Amino acid sequence: QVQLVESGGGLVQAGGSLRLSCAASGSFFSINNMGWYRQAPGKQRELVASISRGGTTNYADSVKGRFTISRDNGRNTVYLQMNSLKPEDTAVYYCNAGAYTKSGMYNGWGQGTQVTVSS
Predict the structure, then answer these.
(1) DSSP state string for 64-118
(2) Which of 34, 60, 97, 104 is within CB 3.0–4.6 Å of 78 for a Cys-Cys bond?
(3) pLDDT digits (tens, 9 = 90+) for 35-88
(4) What phi, psi does 103 have (nearest 5°)?
């Protein structure tokens, strides 16, 4: 049982910045990998960035150098700092996390938060 609560989405102009947050709660021993995905209208959901419990990161080529993923293990929270935003970044952004529970590994998703970047 893992609940993921996201925040930080909004409307910004091209070149602006946003920071997304996702806090995990529930019954689990630890949160392992965490990541951010996004889905634009008419497109499939794609990985934006991920981070392991130890801090190893992975980014989509389209966001390298502009986005930064980080996490606070003590607060079970993952962040996505988005700078130099472009209109093509417009999408619903979803938090994903894999957790170790009594029943084994659990994978869950947040509700999604809208990011809109205007020209």
Answers:
(1) TTTEEEEEETTTTEEEEEE-S--GGG-EEEEEEEEEEETTEEEEEE---EEEEEE
(2) 34
(3) 999 999 999 999 999 999 999 999 999 999 999 999 998 999 999 999 999 999
(4) -85, -5
113's tokens: 């938060």
- Residues present in the chain in total: 119
Structural contact between residues 110 and 4, judged by C-beta atoms closer than 8 angstroms: yes
- Under 8 Å between Cβ of 101 and 29: yes
Strand pairing class (67-72; 10-13): unpaired
Tokens 């049982």 belong to residue: 1
